[in-house]
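The aim of this short unit is practical: by the end, you should be able to scan a pair of folded records and say something sensible about each. We start with the first protein, listed as its amino acid sequence and then its structure tokens.
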Amino acid sequence: MTPSRHSDHGELAIVIAAGGSSRRFGADKLSARIGDRTVLETSVASMRLGVPDAPLVVVVHEDLVDQWQATLSSCEVIAGGPRRQDSVRLGIEKAAELGAEIVAVHDGARPLVHPNDVARVIDALGDGAAAILCCGISDTVKRVDGDNVIVETIDRDSLRLAQTPQVFRIAALKTVWKTQDPLNDFSDEASMIEAGGGEVLCVMAEYPNPKLTTSGDLDLVRLMVGKGT
């Protein structure tokens, strides 16, 4: 395991987005346990391994700030906003207050991100505005019509699935926040940079990085941890 070259630099901070409703999961997925730790604690620990000394801001639902601050005593826990992008912005603004110029945004529902991938995507940023962790698509991709009839098979070679962490220069995000309509919904900050004409580098993940969306995903993660994956 090789920590990022930014791990001992004051310009980098981590923001973990953990303020979602867990609607599709059916319960608070970040409080679910993987072994002797919660999902969120596991996500924090995974990011810490990649960048051990960076300040870490965790953004949670406003009702859970005190609960998580007691659990994550080494982190700055703050309340999120009504949308994911609002919560992440609040986390990034807090990171900037702590002196960060670069921020690594990670989804708290991805507890098994490998520290080597964390370090690789941070180091890939270089002098650019944004770099995100991605993976390729191994299955054949089909486009269907409204009746679920296949109308096209899509070439998957140039397709990528976006993961986290996603790494940004905070100055680039501040520029986009000024130029983009705040009412627009963006699925991630990389989409926001793209909408503003910025370039986003894709870094291919070398290790599994599953996201917890349903209870079945938690079963898979527990199985992976049990097998030492």
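Turning to the second protein, read its sequence before its tokens, just as you did above.
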Amino acid sequence: MVKYVVIVPTYNERNNLALLIPQILQQGQEFHVLVVDDNSPDGTGRLADEIAAGEPRVHVLHRPGKLGLGTAYVEGFRWALDFGAELIFEMDADFSHDPRRLPAFVEAAQSCDLVLGSRYVAGGGVENWPLTRRLMSQGGSLYARTILGVKVRDLTGGFKCFRRRVLEAMDLGAIRTSGYAFQIEMTYRALLMGFCVREIPIRFVDRVRGKSKMSRRIFWEAVLKVWELRLKLPRQIKRARQARSAA
């Protein structure tokens, strides 16, 4: 059977996880969930193990501490590729991303390589955000889009679906960003490598349970990293292509 792996990084998401996993699995027998837990003090990792013990489509990676969103996803990508997944998803644990949209990503992925859940295309949007958060998110996406010279409207979103060939072609070991910057880098890498990227609308709902991981530091890190990506990444990818051609 074709396998789809939904990677869910967690840190203190015990209350959300117990509700989220069943909703993901309800979207089809092809869906598996990989929880990547950073040693959550609230016992999220233990709960994930308990769920996995009774459900073969749930899997858990334990990490020793809070090591960052980017590294959590990279470890998840490697696991999913080894597992044989054809489609690999990024998804938040706090219900900001609606599990019922997963089949729409699967459908879109039949005609492209990377599907982005977008808040800023027709039909998309955000709910329960204060004005400052809206301006930060929209401004960040516009800023990154302008600097990088791409047409993607939602570069900072974290609800995505990769075809395995995209991740197989990337040098995952070269990715050092996290937070917003990680999301920007993954999409920018895919575009530079010539993969087809498509946005589909999503409604992003601010979390009801738990505490947001968003911070001003994460935002400003992304602002600075965009310039680094613009100046360095095209040359890195060009050199990698030349090396593969010469091999």
